[in-house]
Amino acid sequence: MINKSEIKKKYKQSLTPMGVYQLKNLINGKILIGSSKNLPGRKNRFEMELSLENFSDKELLHDVREFGKDKFAFEVLDYLEPKEDPAYNYTEDLKTLEELWIEKLQPFNEKGYNKQPQK
To answer: What's the predicted TM-score (pTM) here?
Structure first.
């Protein structure tokens, strides 16, 4: 007999953690907020970008060069809970969650590396 609750539990556990993260400058406190369907993969990418000093954001790149890659920390701010539907698209949920964190932390100008949304 198939145990549906066990199948649902295994499905949820098999998903890669997704949610909202920040890359924090430990010297000046500036942050970059973003979201990802694969938080461990995003962290690895940041580590690679830090090592190679390869950022499209010129201000972030300048700070990495000035302070060093070891002065930046990747931190998960919020996880998105998986749904029971394997076909569920998390894109809009992640976007909304990211917007909530951006609104809360206001990571613009002297506080962060995010670009202020156009009104």
So the answer is: 0.85
